[in-house]
Every structure is written in structure tokens, then in C-alpha cells.
Design a protein that fits this description.
The chain contains five helices and four strands; from the N terminus they run E-H-E-E-H-H-E-H-H. The chain is α+β, with helices and mostly antiparallel strands and 136 residues long. Strand 2 and strand 3 form a beta hairpin. The longest helix has 18 residues. The chain is globular. This is ABM domain-containing protein.
Length: 136
Amino acid sequence: MSVTIVRYRTRPEMADENERLISDVLRELHLSAPDGFRYLAVRLSDNEFVHLASFDEGAMPITELKTFQTFRAGGKERWLGSPAFTEASIIGAYGAWGSMAPRDPTRATAEAAGVRTEASEPETHPSEFAARGGPS
């Protein structure tokens, strides 16, 4: 199994857009459910993003997704510098990282600013996904 970690920082004014594009990729991954592929993306408080992708032998399927191609196409405008790629080995894991649906970055930003938002679907805590057997 190959594991790649990608880290980069965005321009502050582009961080929400970057997160939205990542959420689009995650939604497409949830729909296509490629075998042998695991993906996790996190946003740090300083607008640094970290992506962890692990995949079995063969091509990394994320590069074939239209949403990922869109995400990569505008990277130079959003990112400060080039992303740093690192190969890694997984020591172990605990919990159900793969069962979390992407969050709505617009809602998250508004809530962080103390603004209450109306959402068509409430965000689900990861423990609720586990209780239901994963995302529906």
C-alpha cells in the first residue's frame, strides 16, 4: 500500500474556496467509492491543508476525478508556494476516518464567526455516522 501526504498553505482569502473544492472531490469519492483507496483532508487553523491518501497497487484514482482536476487547475492562484509531497508508512489507525462526509465550508466559516446558519441538512458528527453504519 502506498501512502502520500501533501501539505501546503493557501492565501487567506482563498482558503474557503480551496476547502469547497476539496469537499467537491470528497463528494465525488463518496459517490464513486473506488476500491483500495483511502483519503483524508484536513484544514489547519493557519490555512494550511494536509491531505493523506493511501492506495493499493496501481494508479491513484483521485487524479481521474473531474472534481480533482478542477481542484488542481486553480492551485497556483490559491496556494502559497508549491505543495510538499511526502511518502509515508502507516503505523496504525483507530476510528472511522473514512466514514465522515465532507463538511460545508461556507457553513463552517460562518459558524466560526458566530453566525448561525440555516442548512438544508444538519452536519452529522462522526459518531452518528458510526451508529448508522456510515454515510447514507
